[in-house]
Amino acid sequence: MGLTSLTITLPDDMARALKDRVASGEYASESEAICDGLRQLDIFDLDDSTLLAAVKPAYDAYLADPDRAIPAEEVFDGMAVRYRARKQHQSSK
């Protein structure tokens, strides 16, 4: 993958926000933050047919056998357990 150097102009508040994110350690550089923002835009810009293609197989499987569905409460409980474990692991570093 090649690299291209660009010069951009940002409003003061956006430039400050960018520098603050780098200073906080959230990003290693302004370039990394801009690249992440562009990746997020790519995700946001997915068209409906792309999203439908990603979701349809799971929906069709549910329609074929609704008994295989996991209740939302069970899913959220599992997510909460994993979240707490991750936070505990991060705080022990």
Structure description:
This protein is mainly alpha-helical and 93 residues long. The chain has helices at 12-23, 30-44, 48-64, 72-91. The chain has two domains: 12-44; 48-91, no CATH class. The radius of gyration is 20 Å and the shape is flat.
The class by helix and strand makeup works out as mainly alpha
- Spatial shape: flat
The end-to-end span amounts to: 34 Å
- Per DSSP, the total helix count is 4
Largest sheet: none
Q: From the structure provided, what is the oligomeric state, counting identical versus distinct chains? A: single chain
Percent of sequence in beta strands: under 5%
User: Average pLDDT, to the nearest integer?
Assistant: 90
Number of E-type strands: 0
Helix and strand sequence: HHHH
**Number of separate domains:** 2
Identify low-pLDDT runs. none
Helix content: 55-70%
Compute the CA-based radius of gyration: 20 Å
